[in-house]
Amino acid sequence: MGGLGKTTMALSLCNDKEIKGAFQNNIVFITVTHSPNLKGILETMWENIVRTKKPEFQNVDDARRQLQQQLLRQAHRTLVVLDDVWSNENLEKLLFEGEGYKTLVTTRDRSIIRSTISTRLYELPLLDDTDALPLFCFWAFGQKTIPSNADEQLVNQVQAECKGLPLALKVIGSSLHGRPHPAWENTKNKLLNGESISDYNKEGLLRCLETSIDVLDEEALECFLDLGSFPEDRKIPVDALLDIWVYVRKIKRHDASLILLELASRNLLNLTSNLRSQTINYGSASELYCSQHDVMR
Predict the structure, then answer these.
(1) Distance between CA atoms of residues 229 and 253, nearest Å
(2) Contact at 8 Å (CB) between 55 and 108?
(3) PANTHER family attached here (predicted)?
């Protein structure tokens, strides 16, 4: 199921001190997606694991053969994370063996994972109220508890309708941040009339998340829809996005920047920097990229 937090958990594991120590910082994170460039991924794996000049691979099978041979020759602990894998055919092209070599796979379809003696499966559960409420409150109020001046019953009702799905809690909570009581009531009613999102039902999830998009004005909504024209699971240069809004939609650059920040504040897109520093400099769009969870596309 999309939005459970599989990618977030995988990234957290990659940044865990104990994990980094166990693999001596030899950790490679790769987003595979629905339609991956397998040859490009294998080239990336060679560059990050073998760390020598990449051969001129003839095709995917040649790249896989040479990489496997190299991994059998070298012996150092390596963790490769294959995130968002959709098919067994693609997965099999990216699995390798080697001393100290481990692979972590995230997928929405457990049937693509071949069962072996060394395979360990873990299914992320939906959050219970104990974990869901603090997450929802963090995005809705900037704290992990319900404020004393908020309608506790209403907050609990809206949170409960997110059915413990982290993406829904994050996006809907953000959309209600600073909103008046009628907006909360309106969101609650819309969620109550929607489908359950606790089952594998993308339409139900999207209907749930529509309440976050409804708060956008017409101009911001059109800008949000423009994100769908970019390839899935790719970082979008903010400069390119702003240019579309400025030159195609005829929006002033300052206003376009404000729309970008509004979408980010509502968790309808994620902003990241291409610099090593974790600090994002909003004054320089050339240093920024944005991306979206594919459920939002």
Answers:
(1) 20
(2) no
(3) PLANT BROAD-SPECTRUM MILDEW RESISTANCE PROTEIN RPW8, TIR-NBS TYPE DISEASE RESISTANCE PROTEIN-RELATED
- CATH code that applies to domain 129-213: 1.10.8
What's the fold here for domain 6-112?
A: Rossmann fold (3.40.50)
CATH of domain 218-296: 1.10.10.10
DSSP secondary structure code for residue 123 in this structure: P
Phi, psi for 28 (deg, rounded to 5): -120, 125
Global pTM reads: 0.64
Across 139-155, b (16+ Cβ under 10 Å) vs e yields: bbbeeeebeeeeeeeeb
Q: C-alpha distances in angstroms, 291 versus 84, 240, 288? A: 15, 13, 10
